[in-house]
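Hypothesis: this fold can be encoded by more than one sequence.
Test: take the structure tokens below, design a sequence, compare later.
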């Protein structure tokens, strides 16, 4: 059973909030399971404790990391065209409520937007982000849904939110972190949620010179390295893990055959990690695989979108063709056009 409520305090704007009770993370068990695999792994979702989130914000400001500034510049450049294509009185549905910089650019470009719905798995962050939008955009009807946006989502009746012109928003090429299967699952879920007359604005990081990609994930200032290693600090702090952080180093590289940047933590000599009664041995050179970030060719992503139930209305790229923003339409809209 879900409960919808008005979430507000004296200092916060009121929003409609519903908790679909997504499964809670089990950091300890996930780490133990991941380190027990032949190729040791850790889920990238555990990067984002408070310090990790702040480090990621710093990554976005490094000279080598082109993704954020390229997408922001592209959003500025296409604002008028995008607004004309989306039309009036739309409701923006944001998948993953981040720092809200990008969605504010979208909202500012729209003609009399009707509403804003944020969907995220992190309840506290979700509420704070949605309330900030409600405070700064008092004419918007603002709602928040605590859910795993990769899984199918049905609007709860008690939310009393009638979305006539939904526009999904999924920036940052976050779809590249979901993998080929997870990416298609997300697109199918979004197509179902936004149908029959919805659209999706989605940012895609394109394949490019491997030197550019390798530099982006190995910045000279070492911020990405610290971001990657911070997950070990989190394990020590939250799980009382016994490990020597200095015996691991950040490794990131673009794999052309797989079309993805891989991030790893590599043991610089034989060592181990102990969590309670569990101990995991590392030979020198052995790694923990912490993240994949897939890059796309435009034809490749177009096929993914079509297979998930979307038609493509328009694609915009920057001058270097580093990044693309797609405007997709559910097939019902595309068929009627």
């Amino acid at each position: 059973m879900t409960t919808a409520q008005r979430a507000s305090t004296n200092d916060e704007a009121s929003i409609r909030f519903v908790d679909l009770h997504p499964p809670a993370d089990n950091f300890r068990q996930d780490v133990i399971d991941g380190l027990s695999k032949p190729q040791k792994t850790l889920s990238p979702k555990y990067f984002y404790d408070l310090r990790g989130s702040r480090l990621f914000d710093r990554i976005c400001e490094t000279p080598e990391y082109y993704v954020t500034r390229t997408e922001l510049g592209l959003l500025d450049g296409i604002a008028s065209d995008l607004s004309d294509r989306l039309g009036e009185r739309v409701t923006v549905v944001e998948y993953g409520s981040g720092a809200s910089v990008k969605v504010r650019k979208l909202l500012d470009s729209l003609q009399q937007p009707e509403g804003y719905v944020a969907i995220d798995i992190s309840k506290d962050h979700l509420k704070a982000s949605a309330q900030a939008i409600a405070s700064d955009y008092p004419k918007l009807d603002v709602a928040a849904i605590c859910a795993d946006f990769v899984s199918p989502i049905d609007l709860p009746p008690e939310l009393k939110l009638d979305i006539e012109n939904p526009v999904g928003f999924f920036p940052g090429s976050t779809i590249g972190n979901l993998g080929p299967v997870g990416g298609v699952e997300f697109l199918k879920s979004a197509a179902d949620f936004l149908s029959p007359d919805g659209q999706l604005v989605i940012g895609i990081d394109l394949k490019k010179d491997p030197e550019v990609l390798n530099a982006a994930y190995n910045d000279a200032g070492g911020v990405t390295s610290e971001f990657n290693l911070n997950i070990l600090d989190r394990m020590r702090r939250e799980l009382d893990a016994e490990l020597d952080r200095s015996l691991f180093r950040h490794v990131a590289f673009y794999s052309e055959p797989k079309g993805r940047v891989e991030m790893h933590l590599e043991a610089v000599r034989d060592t181990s990690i102990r969590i309670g009664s569990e101990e995991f041995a590392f030979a020198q050179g052995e790694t923990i695989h912490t993240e994949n970030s897939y890059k796309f060719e435009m034809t490749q992503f177009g096929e993914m979108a079509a297979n998930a139930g979307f038609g493509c209305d328009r694609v915009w790229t920057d001058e270097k063709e580093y990044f693309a923003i797609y405007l997709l339409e559910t097939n019902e809209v595309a068929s009627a056009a």
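The radius of gyration is 21 Å. The longest strand covers residues 248-255.
Hypothesis status: open.
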